[in-house]
Amino acid sequence: MAEAVTSVLEKLAAVLLEKVREVQAVRGQIEQVQKELRLIQALLKDVDSKCNRNNVVTEWLNQISEIANRIATVIDTFQVMIEENRAESSNWFVRNINRSVKRNYKTYKLGLHVELENIIEELNRLYQRRTDLRIEDLGALDDVDDPEPSDDVDDPEVVGLEDDQAKIIELLLDRSISRRTVLSIVGTGGLGKTTLVQKVYKSDKLEGQFDCRAWQSISQTYNLNDLLREILYSVKPHMEKKNSPVKDRDLPVKLKSFLRGKRYLIILDDVWDINLWGQLKMTLPDMYNASRVIITTRSLDVAKAADCNTKPYMPHYLSDAEGLALLFRNAFQQHVQPENYPHLLDVAKRLTKKCGGLPLALVVLGGILTRRERNYTAWNTLDETIDWHDKDGKQCSQVLARSYEDLPQYLKDCFLYFACFPEDYKISVWRVTRMWIAEGFVPKDGAGTIEDRAEKLLQELVERCLIQVTKKSWNGYCKYCSMHDLLRDLAIRKAMDENFFTVFSKKKRC
């Protein structure tokens, strides 16, 4: 970590050596960034010399890493703009381009001042937080694993899943079955399998029951070595922090060696490949100590291939009452009693019934209703304008399509842009909002800086239940996000229909 900060300091020093007017305009800010970074660099050297870290310290270090990358990006961009601004040519066409570049530079320079000020404030805040987090006394801190999913994410909706959660926990803790068992959670997309397993994974009832745990999202495309490495680093985080990367050929042996004798819980979320378990099982030893593996999948064949002796668990579709509660919770963005809104109850029941008990459809439909007037006419119009009987008979598809059509154009572009990221990719909010700005998706008018407006656009997509927050910063801001694979499929289809981008892939979703 200290090396990363050192590298950034070297970049800053190189910029300050430039004797050009562009640097003089921001010299004071760059020197202030240097000053703050040197304080943090000295602190990092002390942190690296002590082995005990907890989740909070690890998160603090991650924030340092992110801001170091952010500074490096700002400086690289600044140096490019300097070179382009100084470019001269006798060619008429190139001179016109250069004039355009200079105009762009002036615009960029205004943003640069703001960005550097934000960086200075962030560095100062991170340094001041050292006392609150006891970073200066790491020897007293215990090391605690922080497996996925992150605990600082808001609890997902679990309407109607409470019984399922209790039954799965009971199966996991049943020591009468001593062999390593694979419990498969099987169901259609949007049924809430991942949400259910997240609640199980974070349940207090599992505290202290397993020696180590790991959570991995798989999806259709995966690399076995990368998967083994992620599991190894999840159950043994010090190996990633202190050593050079484990070589591919050593991964199976090291993972098996570490897990031998330990009672473990491994979650494999969204498995598509029927051969995955056959490739993975030899690295997960069966010591007859009631270790457990959970797989979520849409395929019953995948479940049977993983463990033919354990009956797959199939979450139930929501009842009308459960669906109604979930719809109102998402439409009102808070816990409310449907009975308290008698003028909406009849149309809400019709909307709920047509979703077929599929949680994702109800959540997204609730997101659409957040932007509608809370009266019968507005909700009934939505009911009448959705084609509930699409040709494929998929009750969720028209709800998702309508959620896209309901977006203003500037939000449509932002939504489609998420489909550029790989499936199950952990998307940095800071990065994607800056990409939107670069693409010109963020309206130029409005209150606050353009960065503030971009973050408000993302928040609106979250409120519409089109984007999921997967990690928040310590102060409550959205840090990482993701897109449900059904919504990603919708975004890809819409993007291709509208020539927003083109997808080249040898694999197609089933």
Can you describe what's shown?
- This protein is of the alpha/beta class.
- It is built from 20 helices and seven strands.
- The strands form two sheets. A four-stranded parallel beta sheet has the order 1-4-3-2, sandwiched between helices. It has a three-stranded antiparallel beta sheet with strand order 5-7-6.
- Strand 3, helix 10 and strand 4 form a beta-alpha-beta unit.
- It is globular, with a radius of gyration of 26 Å.
Supply the CATH architecture of the largest domain. 3-Layer(aba) Sandwich
Number of domains: 4
Number of helices: 20
Integer-rounded radius of gyration = 26 Å
What is the mean predicted local confidence, pLDDT? 78
Q: What class, by secondary structure content?
A: alpha/beta
Biggest sheet: strand arrangement: 1-4-3-2
CATH class placement of the largest domain? Alpha Beta
Q: Which bin fits the share of residues in helices?
A: 40-55%
User: What best-fitting shape do the alpha-carbon axes yield?
Assistant: globular
List the helices and strands and how they pair.
Elements: H1 2-16, H2 21-48, H3 55-86, H4 92-132, H5 162-172, E1 181-186, H6 193-201, E2 212-219, H7 224-235, H8 237-242, H9 251-259, E3 264-271, H10 276-280, E4 292-297, H11 300-306, H12 320-332, H13 342-354, H14 359-369, H15 376-385, H16 395-405, H17 409-417, E5 427-428, H18 429-439, H19 450-463, E6 468-472, E7 478-482, H20 485-497
Helix pairs in contact: 1-2, 1-3, 2-4, 3-4, 5-6, 7-9, 12-13, 12-14, 13-15, 14-16, 16-20, 18-19
